[in-house]
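Ligand: NAP. Inputs:
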Amino acid sequence: METKFLGNTHVKIPEIGFGTWNYAGGIEPLQAAIDHGAFLIDTAENYGTEAVVGEAIRGRREQVFLATKAAPRNFRRKDLIAAAERSLRLLGTDYIDLYQLHWPNYAVPIAETMSAMEELADAGKIRFIGVSNFYVPDLRRAQAALRKHRIVSNQVRYSLVERTIEGGLWKYCRENAITIIAFSPLDTNFLQFQAADPQGELARIAAREQKTRAQVALNWLIAKDGVVTIPKASSIEHVKEDCGASGWRLPDQEYALLAKAIHYRRRGALEIIGRRLARNVLQHLGRAV
Ligand SMILES: NC(=O)c1ccc[n+]([C@@H]2O[C@H](COP(=O)([O-])OP(=O)(O)OC[C@H]3O[C@@H](n4cnc5c(N)ncnc54)[C@H](OP(=O)(O)O)[C@@H]3O)[C@@H](O)[C@H]2O)c1
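Predicted complex:
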């Protein structure tokens, strides 16, 4: 398993880790992931999977880079500290490696939230501060609100079929040494993913390289600077296969072929602004999740 530096730190994380949203695979696949070098495990208070992650890493905490997320409803100082304590308890550990803000919450002053994140870092409860689903203006405001720490990562949707972040966010993250943790790398439903490839390019390249289609799809992401990814896999078989996406690279022209042949979504600036505004309004109406 190849590793990459996390943000501007000297800490290395595997280029393939595993996510646990809608995860019901039990502890064995997660343990197999760690055994195969995929020692980054991602969860969130909203997923309801912190306890199973805690069980899977029991006795081997120091081998794992543990990432979890606070829900936007908990971005007030008091709530964030309580949420972190709850996550620590469920995970059965006394520190979280990467604590992430799951989505921006425009109804809570970012200065209050980031100051609470720094408090948690200074207390040794979290090692690094990360965010998720933050666009460039959100990242700028969040970083500006931090006094001594830096945002090391942004977890965002990114795959061969969802390439919105290429519109500017990817460049901003690269310029600011923010690792991109690509979520839903198989588009949540790998059959649906393959429907976006009417010419069968993925299958052709996979056969030529003696890899599987999922491995090629994951490898397309991790071949990019500053990008790691966290598929969800419920079986040991899928875990092993996904780990096999690391440790090799395709010829450049094959990445280009994939990028061209596979149909993808990329939201424009107006749509992104509209979605932020809608979220902003909902949150001010007290509907933050
Ligand atoms: N920050 C956010 O807002 C956010 C949002 C969504 C997701 N995420 C994170 O990203 C993680 C992954 O995203 P996701 O859960 O949406 O889905 P995903 O990883 O894009 O796709 C998961 C699906 O792919 C299947 N799969 C995995 N490996 C495979 C393989 N080698 N061959 C064929 N199929 C394979 C899984 O099947 P099996 O389960 O049967 O193995 C599952 O059905 C989440 O678990 C979560 O940690 C974060």
